[in-house]
Amino acid sequence: MGIISYIKEEMKVIRERDPAIKTPWEVFLYPSFKAIIRYRIAHKLYKRGHYFLARWISQRTVRKTGIEIHPGAQIGKGLFIDHGTGVVIGETAIIGDNVTIYQGVTLGGTGKEQGKRHPTIKDNVMISAGAKILGSFTIGENSKIGAGSVVLSEVPPNSTVVGVPGRVVKRDNVKIPREDLDQVHLPDPVLNDLKRLQKENQLLIKELKRVCTKVDQLELDLFEEPLETVGKAEELRNKSIK
Question: Which residues pair with 161 in a beta bridge?
């Protein structure tokens, strides 16, 4: 693909996925557009062994856009980084086609391990704001990662992940198209757990009240029985005296 065709494709991706854009020329102002174009240049240099020059370009890009993409990362077509500030993509990360990433996302490693140490993101994945995906594993195609999630293990295709650590809360094999960029209406497992605990607590309180009522009744019965016995003994004694 020539540079002109590539730029047109990137412009199409941004206009398709950002409702805020009004004119095609605004694309040239987007940090995402600048970062990805410069990444492509740095990546070619990196593959040819010009590591210092490749890193120099990537570090200049960080200062200008707030987006850090290591030139060694492998990125497919149609990546869109919305806003972009704080996005970090590690050296061995692999990103498929039509992936959408929001600000504050990290595709990182978990230590000083060698070899493949960053995640693989398959096609049509959406990673919401502030999410952290750490380690060498795969996020399956058509998946959604909820805002602020910390993902530390494999995610099957067609899944929705939320929470810290990230948990799969939806997996129904229904494809999530790349136009579906809803970051809000995602399941909340923590809220669901709190509601379940609240319901169980109410049942326990109800049962405890029932047991306490029963115990109180038993105590009354125990105290009343000796009094009745004493009363009958006194009545018999009085009759005998008469």
Answer: 145, 168
Q: What is the CATH number of domain 3-186?
A: 2.160.10.10
pLDDT in tens, 90-146: 999 999 999 999 999 999 987 767 788 999 999 999 999 999 999 899 999 999 999
Residue 139: CB partners within 8 Å, gap ≥ 6?
119, 120, 121, 122, 125, 127, 133, 145, 151, 155
pLDDT of residue 177: 53
Residue spans of the domains in the chain: they are 3-186, 188-242
State residue 89's pLDDT score: 94
List, as one string, the DSSP characters of 158-195.
Answer: TEEEETTTTEEEEE------TT---SSS---HHHHHHH
Say if CB 118 and CB 136 are below 8 A apart. yes
User: Of 4, 34, 30, which Cα lies nearest the Cα of 18?
Assistant: 30
Type of residue numbered 81: I
| Cα–Cα distance, 118 to 108 (Å, whole number) | 5
Whole-structure pTM value: 0.67
**What's the pLDDT at 176?**
46
Q: Give the position of tokens 């005296």.
A: 241
